[in-house]
Amino acid sequence: MTHLTGTPGPAGRPAVRTRRLTKxxxxxxxxxxxxxxxxxxxxxGLLGRNGAGKTTLMQVLTGQIFPDDGEVEVFGERPAENxxxxxxxxxxxxxxxxxxxxxxxxxxxxxxxxYQNWDEDLAGSLVKQFGLPMDRPISKLSRGERxxxxxxxxxxxxxxxxxxxxxxxGLDAVARREFYDVLLxxxxxxxxxxxxxxxxxxxxxxxxxxxxxxxHGRVLIDSEADAARGSATMVSGPxxxxxxxxxxxxxxARHRIGRLGRATIGAAYDTLAPAAQQAGLSAExxxxxxxxxxxxxxxxxxxxxxxxxxxx
Amino acid sequence: xxxxxxxxRQLAERIEGEIVEGVLAEGAxxxxxxxxxxxxxxxxxxxxxxxxxxxxxxxxxxRRGIGMFVAPxxxxxxxxSRRSAFRDAYxxxxxxxxxxxxxxxxxxxxLVHRELTATTEDPPATTHQGV
Lengths: 312, 131
Fold this sequence. Notes:
The complex is a heterodimer.
Chain A: E1 16-25, E2 28-38, E3 43-47, H1 54-61, E4 69-74, H2 83-86, E5 89-92, H3 104-110, H4 120-130, H5 143-156, E6 161-165, H6 173-189, E7 193-197, H7 201-204, E8 210-215, E9 218-224, H8 225-229, E10 233-238, H9 239-246, E11 251-257, E12 260-265, H10 269-278, E13 282-285, H11 288-297, H12 305-311
Chain B: H1 7-21, E1 29-30, H2 33-40, H3 44-56, E2 60-63, E3 67-70, H4 74-101, H5 105-120
Antiparallel strand pairs in B: 1-3, 2-3
């Protein structure tokens, strides 16, 4: 996998830089000496399995928790207790808590106090577009409606660095597509650094310019999204033919069922397909989602064998 | 868009296809990066990369302050390069599949002949045009 750590964004200076960033919870290292550079003004996907450290990383970057070790810079400064940095960030959490008696109307009335770039017109038009009920206690909203509140705040805040952590739990396919459309349209007009953490990888991957995959508190993949997407191919066919074919090639994952075999190879589909066909194997490009599964459970990763069985 | 190739290349190929088919005529303006990004729901940088590829291949040209336009001769240029890719993209896979199925040369040629006779009653207008 190509490592592009250190690639500056169009603005020159990266939005985020961490070095040997470590956060422990008891004996668990949620972040394990993590080195990461996020280019400015891009849409980055922050991907990984549950418990990989994604949310912890976003909490450190938005100054909500303090690291135990290592360095962290956001826009060139430490974020912890730093109003200059924190005023330029918004973090839409997966399970955002609001005061129990608040209605969406109240939340949206308060939001401009925290975000200097707040766009009232955009917030208003998003409320209409999503059909969000404004005068109902947030505790009475559906999961999807609560997600809409977060999405509207995250977009209308226009923060220079915006984090969406699983932004669309409970949203149906139509509402998610509306979110993607609004996100792209607003990003095109107001380029900024947007980090989206999600499990719906294949759905969102075309929107991403950059991806970072975290596994066990470390960066596993840090790459242009387009390069990562085309970087692996699955071949399948008679097990012996598969074995022979993969001998001299970088294998990410392999499976065997009786006399049938299949393997994921770290090579682009269009370079691998002709050779696979000659070997009597069928080849297909794999999705980013599949690549992530293969990479985070491959023998090279530190995944427990029991987990591996569950996913393969 | 699928996973077989980077998205920017798939987008570039779609636009090339529209140029070859004449949907985008020579001299016509092509959609902006942001319009393409919104339409295909892809990252604007990815759309920009596709346009950049067309630009460096000389298929589109930039008119400062206005936008991108299909370059003169673009359709002919694309048809020529597609002709030279025809053998690898269509003929060889067909021969490989014929081999797997045990279809011999004579039978294959016969099949091609019969298919040609069946379709020549309604020949495509662009068969010999501009190549």
